[in-house]
Amino acid sequence: MMKSLGAVLPRAMNLTKSVPFHNDLDSLLGDWSSAGEAFLWLASVSFGIIFCELVSDISKAFSPVVFPGHAKLSKKEKVEWDSRSVSTAHATVASIVAFYLLYISDIFRDDAPYGPVMFRSTLLSQFSLGFSCGYFLADMAMMYRHYPDLGGLEFFVHHLLSIISLVLGVHSGHSHVYICMVLLSECTTPLVNLRWYMSVLGQKDSKLYLMNGLSLTLLWLVARILLFLYCFTHMYAHREQMKQLHNVAYVFLILAPGGLGFMNVIWFFKILQSFFRILNRKQAP
């Protein structure tokens, strides 16, 4: 029965070995490498969840001290404040690691001696994907706990797509180059959150708010529009490698970046409209 099923769904049953990740794990743990891979995933997800809880606790403890206007916020705004503190911390860590893997390390360079780029991953990339998975799980739990005061449908869809992508990436060790590109786009999140902080603290008329809007618009264009266009171009150039992925990953690799990219374009136009409204208000006599 298993052989016949494997013949029908060969890519779903036979995962290509990820390099250098599986080679490094075999060298470190030998016969225990399978158990070590499961432990690495559980440890990284747990670390992501614990990290979120620690940042949330720190935000609750120090935000009222550092920001005097925090005491005037409503209960709903205080909940969102802490949630955005967590997302800022995760985005900072995730984008730094993604930048290192994409542009400093040679792991995803085409000329690096690790075989097809589609099937490359490392201990660091695996851990970082698990860490981000832990964040998205913790944030979805927070949205559920505080519904309808926190989050919305678009955030739920974003998180769900992200979690499925991360789980597939960790399970197979494949397509980490594209997941890292998506995680790198999280570098816009701190500016989005800073914009919200200044808004609720009554600083929408400040120069800093205007500069934040300009910086966010430019960074969003680079990190969430141009980077995604490069991602799709890279996929097309490596389409023969993509065809070797297992079925679910192949379909989801097309759907997830496409869905996130579509939402990025919609949000970009909203950011542009908001920025030009502020600019026009500043220039009005």
TrEMBL record:
Keyword list, A-Z: Membrane, Transmembrane, Transmembrane helix
Ranges of residues in domain TLC: 76-280
InterPro entries recorded: TLC-dom (IPR006634), TLCD (IPR050846)
Transcription regulation as UniProt keyword: no
Residue runs in coiled coils: none
Pfam family, one: TRAM_LAG1_CLN8
Protein name (record): TLC domain-containing protein
Taxonomic source organism: Sphagnum troendelagicum
